[in-house]
Amino acid sequence: MSVEGEERALSSGTDLTAYRIVQEALTNVTKHAGSATASVRLRYTRRLLSLTITDDGHEPRTAGEPGYGLIGMRERALSAGGWLAAGHRASGGFEVATELPLETLETAEPDSRQGGPDSHQDDEERTAR
Predict the structure, then answer these.
(1) In a 3-state reduction of DSSP, which class is residue 41?
(2) pTM above the 0.90 mark?
């Protein structure tokens, strides 16, 4: 496993989402990639946690619909406000890549321009609406 960037505290939802995506991706390696070696890379930026799970498996590519594991990982990422892509690599093996926001709507600072509790609108402006 490799970690890039300054590690940041994650909300419990983002932490669980990241954990479950890595868990499922590694489970898929053991099920589908033969005797592959897997690597996990976490990259922290100011706003995002990027996860990349790759393997060097050499199992034959199969056409068809993605399995429930891939569907579940994608749904988890989307529900956390992120995205997920998965597929065979040109050099062989398989890759799962996702980005998850580090701030959720609940943890983001209120925007005073939208009339939040810290809004600087005066009473006359509020009653004029």
Answers:
(1) strand
(2) no
